[in-house]
Each structure stands twice: as structure tokens, then as C-alpha cells.
UniProtKB/TrEMBL annotation:
Chain intervals for the UniProt region annotation (Disordered): 1-24, 227-267
Biased composition (Basic and acidic residues): 1-10, 238-249
PANTHER family in alphabetical order: CILIA- AND FLAGELLA-ASSOCIATED PROTEIN 46
Record-given protein name: Cilia and flagella associated protein 46
Alphabetically ordered keywords of this record: Cell projection, Cilium, Flagellum
Gene from which the chain derives: CFAP46_9
One example of a Gene Ontology biological process annotation: axoneme assembly
InterPro entries in the cross-refs: CFAP46
């Protein structure tokens, strides 16, 4: 009940009188949630070990798992799954995805506390907004840590499916980061889970393993690869020049336009020597995918979908 009370609407804590502001409500939610969670922690401390087994079993039953594995460690994994998923839903009620920063609301006079008046303000300098952002960040960190902790318990129990479940949760909740090109940010998120999968196996989730290896590898390389130059519109050739170029290309290839070596398939660039360890880490990461696959028919097709960059980047290094 303390935690539920922590998610209720609150008054503006920054002003003692007058109606609450929109920005004050955001800070109030953060303060009230932390207050409610701290009360819940004190309540559990006062309970001590009273009915601890029963409380753990109730949490485990909520997961509706059909597994026959028993023991407190297994139940702890289920609790971590539930807890993390609940926090993700709380983030979504705040219109924030996992590991994202909240978007500042539109600056209006009604939004600001009265002490700012009509002056222009920077949200990053407003304690109410800073408090709210810190709370959102702490929720994301708690979600990531809980799923990583669940993977550690999976290693302890030697249950690959528990580790893979943690990996699936993290992957599904962070796909927006990959679509935004934030591969560097997923390295500390995926790496502990990938290490756990290396210890227990990937339970046949070959595609998941390759996807995570590929994402981490791109994260290591991304900061060191120069940005592509903006595309330039090619000049429109005349009809006579176009036909002549087409015939010349056909004679060079021997098979019309379909033959011959395609130039420009790989773009060459010079990499800073300081990037060498990062490219080597990228290569090692993608080799994990190969080493954990025994090149069955399905695994080979997956490996072709995410090829290792070793042949391409060894020449650069």
C-alpha cells in the first residue's frame, strides 16, 4: 500500500500556498514515490523473517510459471522479472522508455513555479525538473540492474532459459535505442547478460545471441567510424553519353551490366590507433556468436545474417 500511495497524485511540494504547477506535480510524483518506497522498506524491515517463505511464494505464484524448479533463488528470479516489468510500466505511464530521458514540457507561465515569474528559464537549472529527471533515471537503472541480477541467478541455478529470459526482456525494452543508433549505450546493458549466456549456453536462442553480439560490436565500433558524407545528386548525363557508358560497362564486364567487380562496396578509412582495443573487443564479441554455434543449418543462416567484422576490420587495424 505504501508503494501504491507513492504513485498517487500529489500537491506541489515546492510551494506551500496556491495551486500546484505542472512542473511541481512532476517533482511531487518523484518525491512521493521515493517516500512510499522508503516506507515499504521500513515495513519489511519491521516484519523481519515473519512469513517470509509465504510472501516469496505469493510473489512466485503471480508469475504463473509452470516450471517445477523450487527454491528461494528461483523465486527471487521471478520476483526480479515482476519487479522490473512493473517499473517499466511505471516509466511508460510517464511517457518515457527504458534508459530514455524525459522530454521537457512546453515552457509556459502556468508551468513554472511563481518564483520564476515571466523570465526565461532553463529546465536543466530548475530543481523541480532535475529532481524528476533523477527519479526517472533511477527507475531505469533499477530495471536494468534487476534483469542483470536475474541473469546472475540463472547462472547460479545453471538454467539457460532463465538467463535467456532476462536477455529477451532487456532486448525488447531497449529496441528503441538500437533504432536510434545508440549502440554505445547498450554495451553496459547487454554485456553482463551476454557473459551469463556464455557460461550457461543460449538455450537454442541463436538469433537472440547473434543480435546481442552484433549490437555490442557496433557499440564498440560506432564512436570511431567516421560519419558518411552527405549524398550528392549525380549529374544527369545526356542520352548519347548514357548509352555510350552502358555499352562500355558491358564490354568491360563481359556479361553486360551484371558482371564485373563492384567498386565502392567497402568504404576505406583510417582509424585512430587508440581505437584498436575497441575494434578488437568488437571482433571478440562477434566471435562469441560463432563459437557458440556449431554451424547447424539454422545456425549457419543466422551467422550469415550477422557476419563477424574480422575480415573487414583486421586490415584497418
Amino acid at each position: 500500500m505504501h508503494v501504491l500511495d507513492g504513485e498517487s497524485n500529489t500537491k506541489d511540494p515546492s510551494t506551500g500556498k496556491g495551486p500546484p504547477t505542472a512542473l511541481g506535480r512532476l517533482a511531487g510524483r518523484a518525491k512521493q514515490f521515493e517516500k512510499g518506497v522508503s516506507k515499504a522498506a521500513g515495513h519489511l524491515k519491521r516484519l523481519g523473517d515473519e512469513n517470509d517463505q509465504e510472501r516469496v511464494r505469493i510473489w512466485a505464484d503471480l508469475a504463473k510459471t509452470s516450471s517445477q524448479t523450487t527454491g528461494q533463488t528461483f523465486f527471487a528470479v521471478i520476483v526480479y522479472y515482476l519487479y522490473s516489468s512493473a517499473l517499466v510500466q511505471l516509466l511508460r505511464t510517464e511517457a518515457v522508455q527504458l534508459a530514455d530521458k524525459p522530454v521537457p514540457p512546453e515552457d509556459t507561465i502556468k508551468l513554472r513555479p511563481k518564483r520564476y515569474g515571466e523570465q526565461l528559464v532553463n529546465f536543466d537549472d530548475m530543481p523541480e525538473w532535475v529532481s524528476y529527471c533523477d527519479w526517472i533515471s533511477s527507475l531505469s537503472n533499477e530495471v536494468i540492474h534487476s534483469f542483470q541480477r536475474a541473469a546472475e541467478f540463472g547462472v547460479e541455478l545453471k538454467e539457460p532459459w532463465l538467463v535467456c529470459n532476462a536477455a529477451v526482456y532487456l532486448w525488447n525494452y531497449t529496441t528503441h535505442m538500437l533504432s536510434q543508433g545508440r549502440h554505445k549505450e547498450v554495451i553496459p546493458i547487454y554485456s553482463p547478460v551476454l557473459e551469463a549466456m556464455k557460461l550457461t549456453g543460449h538455450a537454442g536462442e541463436t538469433v537472440l545471441l547473434c543480435q546481442m553480439c552484433n549490437a555490442i560490436a557496433q557499440g564498440f565500433m560506432q564512436p570511431w567510424i567516421p560519419a558518411l558524407p552527405p549524398p550528392t545528386a549525380p549529374a544527369t548525363p545526356s542520352k548519347d553519353k548514357s548509352e555510350k557508358a552502358e555499352k562500355t560497362k558491358g564490354r568491360q564486364s563481359g556479361k553486360g551490366t551484371k558482371g564485373g567487380h563492384q567498386k565502392g562496396r567497402y568504404r576505406q578509412f583510417v582509424v585512430d590507433p587508440e581505437a584498436t582495443p575497441y575494434f578488437e573487443a568488437s571482433i571478440r564479441c562477434d566471435r562469441v556468436c560463432i563459437e557458440h554455434n556449431k554451424w547447424s543449418r539454422d545456425q549457419e543462416s543466422c551467422a550469415n545474417q550477422y557476419p563477424p567484422p574480422s575480415d573487414h576490420f583486421m586490415g584497418v587495424l
